[in-house]
Design a protein that fits this description.
This protein is an alpha/beta fold and about 325 residues long. The protein is built from eleven helices and eight strands. It has a single domain, classed as TIM Barrel, CATH 3.20.20.70. Helix content is about 35%, strand content about 10%. The protein has an eight-stranded mixed beta sheet with strand order 1-2-3-4-5-6-7-8, with helices on both faces. It starts with about 35 loop residues before the first helix and ends with a helix.
């Protein structure tokens, strides 16, 4: 039975605060409304399998383009997150139910029906679950492998901050092709943007993935336009490289509603190009830095380029 004592809301802890005005978006981040037969077909497959996508839940600006091409990021473990990050539009509160044991199979069925070459699987944070959902991720990976053995799998995980260190091994041993965990912002903004997380814990999580399996690709991303400085962004790049992270994504933060963290400014395409150049110079194997960059945007194409870039580096040794 659903617990109605703590309703799932979009940031109930901020309800008493004044709304943050949303500045007008510049032309370079305007996108077309989601239309097209491919979009409709993808949406229908999601509905048939009773699946949640972060594309819809987080209000991704690229949903129209991605779904029209048959690409979708599966979000497992429900629609309600136990955290209350002020940048995120996913509902927060106490999840109304336990993890669904049949969900991994439904995800795998959708991946097969969409005939995906590459799939991204993410989740809400489930601090109410003992292992943070690590075994659920592992089961989902194995189910996809069974039904679509040629599909490459990218996971975007929570930080498992309240769990035993061994839960990370559960996920890594399931052998995803890419292990992604986003740092989201610079450490100085964590208290107001990502209050339930810890910057160096997230960084260490990705470092441990490489220690457990040096051949696994690691990936992380941040948003800009939240109030950070260029110097802080460059320091995050250095921290990521020290943790041996392969792939960096940087995108513009877009305020989902007036209740969320305000947009400090819209970073220009020229600044993004400068960030990308700096990141390449620091030794990342793959970099994507544009206003509309998101963790899962063009993930399949980027994975192919990532693998090719590493193979080229290995060939030079």
């Amino acid at each position: 039975m659903r617990d109605l004592t703590i309703p799932a809301e979009r940031h109930p802890e901020k309800a008493h605060k004044a709304d943050n005005p949303q500045p007008k978006k510049p032309d370079w981040i305007r996108v077309k409304a989601p239309v097209g037969e491919g979009y409709k077909a993808t949406r229908e497959i999601m509905r048939e399998n009773k699946l949640v996508t972060v594309c819809e839940e987080a209000g991704c600006p690229n949903v129209g383009e991605c779904w029209n091409q048959g690409h979708a990021t599966m979000m497992i473990m429900g629609e309600v997150c136990t955290r209350a990050c002020t940048f995120c539009n996913i509902a927060t509160g106490k999840p109304p139910e336990d993890l669904d044991p049949f969900e991994p199979g439904r995800v795998a069925h959708a991946v097969k029906k969409l005939d995906l070459n590459h799939v991204v699987v993410t989740s809400v944070d489930r601090d109410d679950v003992k292992d943070g959902g690590a075994e659920h991720f592992a089961q989902t990976i194995r189910a996809i492998r069974k039904q679509s053995p040629s599909t490459t799998i990218e996971i975007l995980t929570p930080d498992f901050i309240r769990c035993d260190d061994s839960v990370l091994e559960t996920v890594v041993e399931a052998r995803p092709d890419v292990f992604n965990h986003n740092l989201e912002t610079v450490p100085g903004l964590y208290p107001e943007v990502r209050p339930g997380a810890r910057y160096f814990h997230s960084l260490r999580l990705l470092q441990r993935v490489k220690e457990l399996d040096p051949t696994m690709f690691t990936k992380s991303g941040i948003m800009v336009g939240l109030g950070e400085t260029r110097q802080q962004v460059v320091q995050v790049m250095d921290d990521m490289r020290a943790a041996d992270i392969d792939f960096l994504t940087i995108g513009q933060y877009l305020q989902p509603t007036p209740k969320h963290h305000a947009v400090d400014r819209f970073v220009t395409p020229e600044e993004f190009a400068s960030y990308e150049k700096t990141a390449w110079n620091k030794g990342f194997v793959m970099v994507s830095a544009t206003p509309l960059t998101r963790s899962s945007y063009h993930a399949g194409d980027d994975f192919a380029r990532l693998r090719a870039a590493r193979d080229a580096k290995l060939a030079q040794r």
